[in-house]
Design goal:
Helix 5 runs antiparallel to helix 6 and helix 11 packs parallel to helix 14. It is built from 14 helices and no strands. The radius of gyration is 20 Å and the shape is globular. It is mainly alpha-helical. Helix content is 83%, strand content 0%. The N terminus is likely disordered. The longest helix has 46 residues. The two termini are 26 Å apart.
């Protein structure tokens, strides 16, 4: 039994296996056409269910504490709209010899985008972090990003034709897909809250299932668009390396700041909300901000970064979750022994 327990530490859990399975399936059997449209409906329904369950599960006091945690929200916004752009600007001279001006603009555009919403909150839940804090931080980042990203792009991406202005679709999506189900869940809490609290595996399944659905859809879209055939292998390798280094730097900074200044639950929020970039917001913004000939290069770094952040954050969230489960088991055993 001890040997099996030792080996289990090095084996991926079912969530990671499902994630890798979704990536593999999308690589060989991507969903496309009419099926992709209905699949998008399914993904949106899963996300709405996720936030309904979280709304029904969380107490009003917890939501108030999350909404008023301004120190955490300021750190997330600083990582998203200050740290990322500074790194992107610093990398421009270094990458000039390897990438075209259009791809350089795409790398900088990636750094200007807001954080993700649904995956950041889902990863925070899997890692057993501060879910109300994640809901507020991620939603605030996206709402402000509708205005901040076009403004920064107009100032910093001078080599591109910027048409300016943000799309209200991003705001509508947040209201309908995230906040509305959450509010409905809060209203229904008096009837279903106890049942949800008594069945935490249901919320965990929806958390992880929504991430798997998003990953499969994102990889399918990349494969169908033929992203891997649109550029030289050398340029693709450089962009992948840039995404890896960018994510590593930001995650290292947010982890260090979170570990030094915040409790574990808020540390998780800063790590996941402060290190992510939104494909859902980025694609519509790119269509508005960039001329047609530059659009492909503008979104390519974002598409690669999006895939990378999902994979890396899934592994980290699973590790946090296992550590939290182990700590709870030890505390329960200690309580029984007393």
């Amino acid at each position: 039994m001890k040997r099996l327990s030792w080996l289990k530490r090095f084996l991926p859990d079912r969530f990671i296996v499902a994630l890798l399975g979704a990536i593999t399936l999308a690589s060989f059997l991507p969903i496309h056409g009419t099926a992709a449209v209905y699949y998008d409906y399914l993904t949106n329904a899963a996300i709405a269910l996720l936030f309904f369950l979280h709304g029904a599960k969380l107490s009003r006091d917890a939501i108030y504490a999350g909404a008023t945690n301004w120190r955490l929200h300021i750190c997330v916004l600083a990582s998203t709209f200050v740290l990322f752009p500074l790194i992107g600007l610093a990398a421009q001279p270094l990458l000039g010899a390897w990438l075209t001006p259009e791809l350089l603009a795409g790398v900088l555009f990636l750094c200007l985008l807001p954080s993700t919403v649904q995956s950041s909150i889902a990863f925070t839940s899997v890692a057993r972090g501060n879910i109300p804090g994640a809901v507020c931080s991620a939603s605030l980042s996206n709402l402000l990003g509708v205005f901040i990203t076009p403004l920064l792009a107009g100032v910093l991406i001078s080599s591109q034709s910027i048409s300016g202005g943000g799309s209200l679709n991003a705001v509508v999506d947040i209201l309908l897909k995230i906040l509305l189900p959450f509010v409905v869940g809060q209203i229904a809490r008096r009837w279903v809250g106890e049942w949800i609290s008594a069945h935490p595996k249901v919320v965990k399944f929806v958390d992880q299932g929504s991430i798997v659905l998003v990953v499969y859809g994102a990889f399918s879209a990349s494969v169908v668009e033929g992203m891997w055939q649109r550029m030289p292998l050398s340029a693709l390798a450089v962009i992948v390396l840039v995404c890896v280094v960018l994510l590593a730097i930001v995650m290292a900074v947010t982890f260090a700041v979170g570990r030094r200044f915040f409790a574990r639950e808020d540390e998780i929020v800063l790590l996941f909300c402060g290190s992510k970039k939104s494909l859902a917001s980025g694609i519509p913004m790119a269509k508005v901000l960039f001329a047609g000939s530059a659009l492909g290069s503008a979104v390519l770094p974002l598409m690669l970064f999006h895939q990378l952040q999902l994979i890396v954050c899934a592994f980290i969230a699973a590790r946090y979750g296992r550590a939290a489960d182990a700590a709870e088991a030890r505390n329960a055993q200690a309580a029984v022994s007393r």
